[in-house]
Design brief:
mainly alpha; two-stranded antiparallel ribbon
Length: about 260
């Protein structure tokens, strides 16, 4: 879903520029501190893209075919089981490196070390940035909450519940169904047949009553109104983001501003 709030944030391409600049700045800082820096941001992403049409963290399974395989687990869980994640012991050298890069919790909400210094050089780790980001985030969260209370959305949720009841399941909301099955689930567990059956009915009922489209339409409407009513606040964050991008571009061209 394309959000009216997207204009307040930098694009993915601009984020790539910032990430590359952060690597340059953090690398210089870590080298000065006597460490061999391992780039954090500008390395190729080896993870598979997540298909958000299959599952929602807020609403559970969205696709009946996927639900028949994964139940109330996110489809990508099965692709990244805990037993496949290698955990190596942390050495004193590792801890020294991490402390130099990230600082410690006592350094404040942004952490510390070379990571903080790099963000500060791009103007992304100060009170003005944090205040602007939080202000827009608060406005957006309120708009999204208002959208979920819209009569069209609440009506669609009731229709979903009725659809589920017709198949023998007594859940008032998709969240209730998801919570009931996830209470005992772990990332390593295999869904039972009962869970799979419930998840398939859940996803199919979402499709039948057009639940997710109704939510998306209401969300866009409420978010657009929120952006319009709070345009100076949204534009302020946008301006800070563009300033950070300009500084990042200057770092990459060797002409810091």
């Amino acid at each position: 879903m394309v959000s009216p709030f997207d204009a307040a944030y930098i694009t993915s391409e601009q984020q790539d520029v910032i990430d590359s600049a952060l690597d340059v700045l953090q690398g210089a800082c870590m080298t000065a501190a006597g460490f061999v820096y391992q780039p954090e941001y500008s390395q190729p992403d080896s993870t598979s893209p997540v298909d958000l049409s299959l599952w929602s963290g807020d609403w559970g399974p969205l696709d009946p075919v996927s639900a028949a395989q994964h139940g109330y687990q996110a489809p990508w869980w099965s692709e990244d089981k805990l037993q496949n994640i290698e955990v190596t012991p942390e050495t004193d050298a590792d801890r020294a490196y991490i402390n130099a890069l990230d600082g410690s919790a006592s350094d404040g909400p942004f952490g510390g070390g070379c990571s903080l210094k790099a963000e500060q050089q791009l103007g992304m780790a100060d009170s003005a940035w944090l205040a602007a980001w939080n202000a827009v985030d608060d406005i957006r969260q309120q708009a999204d909450a208002d959208a979920l209370n819209d009569s069209q959305v609440t009506g669609a949720v009731r229709s979903w519940s009725t659809c589920m009841a017709q198949q023998g399941f007594t859940y008032q909301t998709p969240q209730a169904a998801m919570s009931a099955w996830q209470q005992t689930a772990t990332i390593q567990s295999t869904p039972s047949q009962a869970e799979l059956t419930t998840a398939v009915a859940d996803a199919q009922c979402k499709v039948t009553v057009n639940l997710m489209s109704t939510i998306s339409q209401a969300t866009i409407e409420y978010e657009q109104n929120a952006v319009t009513n709070n345009l100076p606040t949204v534009q302020h964050l946008q301006q800070l983001g563009m300033a950070a991008v300009a500084k990042a571009e200057a770092v990459m061209t060797g002409q810091p501003k």
